[in-house]
Amino acid sequence: MKVLLVEDEREMQESICQYLETEKFLVEVATDFELAFEKIHLYEYDCVLVDITLPDGSGLDLIKEIKKTRPKTGIIIISAKNSLDDKIDGLNLGADDYLPKPFYLAELNARIKALIRRNNFEGTASIKINEIELFPEERKVLVYEKNVILTSKEFDLLEYFIINKNRVIQKNALVEHLWGDNADQFDNFDFIYNHVKNLRKKLIEANCQDYLKSIYGIGYSFKTEI
Amino acid sequence: MKLITKTSRYYILFALPLLLIAAFFSYLFMLHEIGESNETLLFSRLKVVEKQLKKGDSSILSVFQENRELFIKEIAVDHQIEAQFSDTLIFSEMKAEYISYKTLQKSVQIDSKNYLIQVWKSSIEIHEIVEVIFFVFLSILVLLLLTVIYINIRISKRLLNPFFETVKSIKKFRVSDGERLAFQETTIDEFQELNKAIYLMTDKMILDFSNQKKFTENASHEFQTPLAIIKTKIDLLLQSNNLTENEMKLLSSIDDATSRLSKINKSLLLLSKIENGQFQNNTNVFLKVLLDNILEQHEDYLLSKKIEIENTLPPDFAFLLNEELAIILLTNLVQNAIRHNIIDGKISIYEENNIFCIANSGNSTPLDEKLIFERFEKKSPDSHSIGLGLAIVKEIADFNTLAINYFYKEGFHRFTIVQKK
Known about the structure:
The structure holds two protein chains of two kinds.
Chain A (H helix, E strand, L loop, with lengths): L1 E5 L3 H13 L3 E5 L2 H10 L4 E4 L2 E2 L2 E2 H11 L4 E6 L4 H10 L3 E4 L4 H17 L5 E3 L2 E4 L4 E4 L2 E3 L3 H12 L5 E2 H9 L10 H16 L6 E4 L3 E4 L4
Parallel strand pairs in A: 1-2, 1-3, 3-6, 6-7
Antiparallel strand pairs in A: 4-5, 8-9, 9-10, 10-11, 12-14, 13-14
Chain B lengths: L2 H53 L3 H8 L3 E6 L8 E9 L4 E14 L2 E10 L3 H34 L1 H12 L16 H51 L5 H31 L7 E4 H11 L1 H6 L3 E4 L6 E4 L1 H17 L6 E7 L2 E7 L27 H10 L3 E8 L2 E8 L2
Parallel strand pairs in B: 6-8
Antiparallel strand pairs in B: 1-4, 2-3, 3-4, 5-7, 8-9, 9-11, 10-11
Helix pairs in contact in B: 1-3, 5-6, 6-10, 7-9, 9-10
């Protein structure tokens, strides 16, 4: 999977690259508009991450260019502006997703994977990990080929855990992923424990291994390797 | 008071004493002139009488005497009397009152006889003159007033028209539109000067506004980027396998604080955007649909506090508002109602006389309605609350003809919003 990251902040680049590379992505970096322009004409990417504000141009123009030359490439806008106008403009130009900075790297990873899955396999692909098979489009989970009935929130949690397996996932990242950006204004996240607890119970009842480890005070980790 | 009324008032105020002084002098002048003409008349009458006496013709004299305007008497020859005027009062039988008369008497020597001739004429009475003058000047005053009123109407209609047009365009002026004002052409120097000054001022305002807009946007952008870097670094650090539990907790706390900083930054940017009127496109927003959505999003929060929801808002209840702002407004109110609620509490949303109301159970002491809408006025020890939610609600209301109020009644904290007509 090839990803092009168009981002002018070097520190930001490094963080994103480091995270994505451990997810087996091949990440290329363009620090400015000109370089990005060159790269999208030379190579084909599965996904391009575009920052709107670049030192020598607008990410929006870059989106136009990508749509013209490589219409199948997935595009995710990562912007610090978080203005609705930019979001609407970007999506209208053909971007697939919009992720305002700051974000959790796990979230970025989930968005990229979801996008590539949608683009490459028309969403029919399942995610398989050991005994669990997850069908994102049908929102169905099989454990040892047997259907496990999950609530909508439990399904989203499981998908997020599997996509970010063997990572430390913070509670806040889960809240942002499941309840949106403006929903995390509260201190009490007890209900997350409940959702996770129920998910875990259902998986264990289906004879699934107990992959979910809770890290007290921080969050969770879905450990498939010891 | 209108400028023109004020100037007219001064005009009349100064005209009044002037008219009084003029009336006084006219009176003196008239008195003098009438006196003089009376004297000439009496002199000429005396001449006629003298001539007739010399001729020995007494027919005319008898007419005069009949009219009681002449008195002739023979006096001692050596008694000479020079012509001399005097005033007397004579009783008039006709008017049954004393009337003032001017008298001229003189001795005349005719054929060695000496006669005293007295002629008199009733003088015009003072009160009659005063009356005449009073009426003349009163009519001048009335005419003057009418003229002033007429000129006023004309001036305020025509002369001041460019001024009123200017005022009208200033009232309509919105700096966020970024449009230059267009004033009516005028030939009046003062108004040209005014328009020029306003052009300068508004141009400066538009420029400042767009600069400030750019600044807030850039500032927010510049803030978010380092925050984003901090967050991703924490994220990466957390992934390293050799951290102790304590170290992980520290990192998580740093992450929490960074999130809050980012949220404050976003909220302040939102506030300045609302203040700058950068949210336009007001439409009729139906609140019920939005609320159902927001409540669904917050379902887990509601469940975790076991809060009962009662939403009786009619589906056609709408505010004229930008939809994005409407969502922010309702979300903040709902979050506020959840945050300050108690376990097993209740939130009730209803409409009453076209007023939207959201009420929540909670702490039983009423809040200070003056303070709750202040920025960073936190009532909750909840560290995730940044104390800007209600300030944003207030700001949205203020900039969109909505009136928001708070009161505490029957154990419920109630926020009401009504669209001002």
